[in-house]
Design a protein that fits this description.
Number of domains: 1
Number of helices: 10
CATH superfamily: Ribokinase
CATH architecture: 3-Layer(aba) Sandwich
Distance between the termini: 39 Å
Number of strands: 13
Strand order of the largest sheet: 5-4-1-8-9-10-11-12-13
Largest sheet: 9 strands, mixed
Oligomer: single chain
Order of helices and strands: EEEHEHEEEEHEHEHHEEEHHHH
């Protein structure tokens, strides 16, 4: 069973031709609200895209914004361990450009009330999935407790920040994108150079439309992306994280889990919203069958060059 401990936000999304530059006002078009937050997105992905039994520890306010988040999580089959907070439910404000790219500002609200003592009994939990949208001391305490209990700890180090050694020592699998890698590794070299700086047993770097790379112990894995028509990239990285955690919890090898997670993340780009775009496990399996040759030698060579591995 997977435990996700993290954030839940209600996303306010405006579609526009482009993301505004500093000081620029852009006239938007459609406006919608969607359930979001990195923790909640990843919990939905573990359950819906990965087909894994998933529980989530989260904090919500006593307000109207909480209900759509609870409904979305429970609708995806996630069991909730909810802490009620005096602060309002977390929110995120998203500008979505016509090319599918986005800019996001988060107001954490209730997410900031999660404390170390809120971690439940870990009996029956095999994998703990964490992010950095809740207090760092809580993330560190959860990771250390899980490590001591023999639970595999995955940390999506986003939003990126410098991480204390005691947290990194408790993490088994560290996941982030290329920009976040440079921040956490505190190194300006190639992706390969940054990977060498981190002593975590497994490090996974997502590279958007190009694919992903992972160092698992002393072995490197490369996974090319899947061909899709992007509509909205919001939540794609979270879907990747949830898909990866679910695949590993079900005993898949690292290379198979990376491939599964990449397919899930690609499909998330084809729909609007964060949790609403998370595909089903059946859809992920279908994409894997439709594109069995996406890891061609030429594409993997291009990834090696990108990562500084040649």
């Amino acid at each position: 069973m997977i435990l996700v401990a993290g954030s839940a936000n209600l996303d306010f999304v405006v579609r526009a031709d482009h993301i505004p530059s500093p000081g620029e006002t852009v006239l938007g078009r459609d406006f919608q609200t969607f359930p979001g937050g990195k923790g909640a997105n990843q919990a939905v992905a573990c359950s819906r895209a990965g087909g894994a039994a998933t529980t989530m520890l989260l904090a919500l306010g006593n307000d109207a914004f909480a209900k759509p988040l609870e409904d979305s999580l429970q609708g995806a089959g996630v069991t909730l361990l909810t802490q009620r907070a005096a602060q309002p439910t977390g929110t995120a404000f998203i500008c979505l450009a016509a090319n599918g790219e986005n800019a996001i500002t988060v107001a954490p609200g209730a997410n900031g009330s999660l404390r170390p003592e809120h971690l439940p009994d870990l009996a029956g939990i095999t994998h703990l999935l964490l992010q950095l949208e809740i207090p760092l001391d809580a993330v560190t305490a959860y990771a250390k407790a899980a490590k001591s209990a023999g639970v595999t700890v995955l940390l999506n180090a986003a939003p990126a920040r410098a991480l204390p050694p005691e947290l990194l020592d408790a993490v088994d699998i560290l996941i982030f994108n290329e920009g976040e890698l440079a921040v956490v590794a505190n190194h300006g070299g190639s992706i390969a150079d940054c990977l060498r700086q981190l002593k975590v047993p497994t490090v996974v770097v997502t590279l958007g439309a190009r694919g992903c790379v992972a160092r698992h112990m002393d072995t490197l894995f490369l996974q090319a992306s899947f061909a899709i028509e992007p509509v909205d990239t919001t939540g794609a990285g979270d879907t990747f994280c949830g898909g990866l955690c679910a695949a590993l919890s079900q005993g898949k090898s690292m290379d198979a889990a990376l491939r599964y997670a990449s397919a899930a993340g690609a499909l998330a780009c084809t729909q609007l919203g964060a949790q609403s775009s998370v595909p089903t496990a059946a859809a992920v399996t279908a994409l894997l069958a439709e594109q069995p040759q996406n890891n061609s030698p030429a594409r993997l060579d291009a990834l090696r060059t990108l990562c500084g591995l040649t």
